[in-house]
Amino acid sequence: xxxxxxxxxxxxxxxxPAQKVYEDDKMLVFKDIEPxxxxxxxxxxxxxxKLLSDMDESRAELVKYMLxxxxxxxxxxxxxxxxxxxxxxxxxxGQTVFHLHIHILGGEPLPW
Length: 112
Ligand code: 5GP
Ligand code: ZN
Hints:
22% helix
């Protein structure tokens, strides 16, 4: 279910522009507006759900699908030498957008 005010649902609806690098019927990958590394992409699922704890079996399949696609997408977008995936969950992790997303960071050696 889409959420009217969710910023990532708005990107999915084309209401907010984004620099898209990959899209299919289940997911979208675009450049983070405030990159924390030389390459910083966000992979989002087209289904709106907030947290890993909202996951059911079909959403788990969706996350598995995204993880399966990410290696090729990352390699095709400047992360040939490796990358880091991050899923922030909740306040302590600094999550700001409550639509499940996977950060893809790379393009340079990353500090731990
Ligand atoms: P979180 O902290 O929730 O895991 O990460 C949300 C990410 O979304 C942040 O890195 C932030 O820069 C990015 N972001 C927030 N709003 C927009 C937007 O409108 N466009 C793009 N491309 N990225 C956004
Ligand atoms: Zn959303």
